[in-house]
Amino acid sequence: MPLSLLKNLIFVFKNRNKQGINHIPGDIHYCILALIGCKSVLTIHDLVFIKNSKKHFDRFFKYLLWLYLPVKLASRVICISENTKNEVLKYVKIRNIEIINNPIDPAFVYSKKEFNSVNPTILHIGTGWNKNLKRTIMALQDIPCHLRIVGKLNEEIITLLKCGKIEYSNVFNLTDEEIRQEYINCDIVNFPSEYEGFGMPVIEGQATGRVVLTSYIEPIIEVSGGAVEFVNPLQIESIRNGYLHIISDKQHRDKLIRNGLENVKRFSVQSIEKQYMVLYKTI
Questions:
Q1: Would strands 121-125 and 188-191 be described as parallel, antiparallel, or unpaired?
Q2: Alpha helices by DSSP H, 186-234
Q3: How many Å apart are CA 26 and CA 227, to the nearest integer?
């Protein structure tokens, strides 16, 4: 067992609440091993830790310590979306599982901005394998815009941007406030992901009052409330047509923004807090 895991287990064991409820809100699922005999809640955001494991031993190690044992030992398992719940149940059959969505940071508030239909700023958050940046770049060729990318770029992506003659800028290691400002500055939030556990940028964009282009996949269908420009993330032409539709149709944009602002109300901190308080009282 890696030393960092052992240190975390020791810390949790020493600080466990024997009379109350111990809640592991994600990532360090294995720490529930230090809570045996205590009331515990485990929140699972996604199963990317398994999907990212290429070697058989690493995959089994993550499955055992991050999924199987934690969900079997937890008093209650919380998934942040129906999609995550269904994925968990494919691997482990349990009954003590339910859905409570992630809340949105109340700092994300509506900020009015005149849409730049001549040269819109398209905000792309994340450069991981699932964020679909390559197809985004290919879909944007010959569309006048400024692509604002948050996340470190590798040489392959930089070459693709240059070959496609994409006007772009790149930032990373931003503070929370700087991230919020990126949403305010943009015209379109770009999120054509291939895989997500929830899709927080979708509701962050909606809360800011920006039109969101995203994938027609779960859990984004569930989370977005349909108030987005849906595309097929595996088809460059579909992504491209989505941009063109947003840029050319003001009535469509305005409708998506209105519906998006309505959709995010269900993700307020107050709403999610009430659901957790009800849950805690049942354990």
A1: parallel
A2: 200-208, 220-224
A3: 28
Domain range enclosing 231: 121-267
Q: Are residues 126 and 262 in the same domain?
A: yes
Strands 188-191 vs 211-215: parallel, antiparallel or unpaired: parallel
208-267 tens-digit pLDDT:
999 999 999 999 999 999 999 999 999 999 999 999 999 999 999 999 999 999 999 999
Within-domain flag for 114: no
Q: How many domains does the chain have?
A: 2
CATH of the domain at 251: 3.40.50.2000
**What are the tokens at 131?**
């964020």
Report the distance separating Cα 253 and Cα 92, nearest Å. Answer: 42
Q: Is residue 112, in this structure, part of any structural domain at all?
A: no
Strand order through the sheet with 39-44: 21-24, 39-44, 76-79, 97-99
Strand 21-24 to 39-44 pairing: parallel
pTM (2 decimals)?
Answer: 0.87
- 250 and 167 in a single domain? The answer is yes
110 falls within a domain:
no
Longest CA–CA span in the chain (Å) reads 62
Cα separation, 209 vs 87, whole angstroms: 31
Q: How many whole angstroms separate alpha carbon 181 and alpha carbon 165?
A: 26
3-class DSSP state of 28? coil
Q: Has residue 87 been placed in a domain?
A: yes
Contact 52, 61 (CB under 8 A): no
Q: Are 63 and 91 in contact (CB under 8 A)?
A: yes
